[in-house]
Design a protein that fits this description.
Layout: H1 33-42, H2 46-59, H3 62-71, E1 76-77, H4 78-85, H5 89-101, E2 105-110, E3 113-118, H6 121-136
Antiparallel strand pairs: 1-3, 2-3
Helix pairs in contact: 4-5
C-alpha cells in the first residue's frame, strides 16, 4: 500500500506551505553527493529508460488499456475487441499495432483471423499493479 504525504499550508492552500514556499520545494539547497550517486547508479541505460517510457506511453490511452484488460481475460480477435471497446475494427487494429510494437500483445493466426493475447505475465503484472495503485487514490 502506498502512503502519500500531503503538505497543506496553514490556510489550507495545498500549493504552498505556511511560509509560501511551494510544497516539496527544497528550502535549504545542498546537494547530497552520496544520494545523487546512488540515484544515478539506479537509473538504467538510456535505451531501457526509453523503452519503459514507450510502454507507459502505450498504457496512457484508455482504449489501449481496455484492450489490454480485455485480453487479460483471454484471447480475442479484432472484431471482439471492437465490440468490447466500442471503436471500429480499424481503430482497434491501429491500437494493436502500437501495442505489438511495444511487445505488450502477441497474436496467432486462426484461419483468416488474427487472435490476440497479452505478450506475457509481465503485462498482466503491470495491469494488476496499475489497477491496485489507481484503487488507492479512491
Amino acid at each position: 500500500m502506498n502512503t502519500r504525504s500531503h503538505n497543506v499550508a496553514a490556510a489550507g492552500d495545498p500549493t504552498g506551505d505556511a511560509t509560501g514556499d511551494p510544497v516539496g520545494a527544497c528550502t535549504a539547497p545542498a546537494v547530497d553527493d552520496a544520494a545523487v550517486a546512488r540515484a544515478l547508479e539506479a537509473i538504467p541505460a538510456e535505451e531501457r529508460v526509453q523503452a519503459l517510457a514507450d510502454i507507459f506511453s502505450a498504457l496512457a490511452d484508455p482504449t489501449r488499456l481496455r484492450i489490454l484488460l480485455a485480453l487479460a481475460a483471454g484471447e480475442l480477435c479484432v472484431c471482439d475487441l471492437a465490440c468490447i471497446t466500442g471503436v471500429s475494427s480499424s481503430a482497434v487494429s491501429h491500437q494493436l499495432r502500437l501495442l505489438r510494437d511495444r511487445d505488450l500483445v502477441a497474436f496467432r493466426r486462426d484461419g483468416r483471423r488474427a487472435v490476440y493475447r497479452l505478450a506475457d505475465a509481465h503485462v498482466v503484472a503491470l495491469l494488476e499493479q496499475g489497477l491496485e495503485h489507481a484503487g488507492e487514490r479512491q
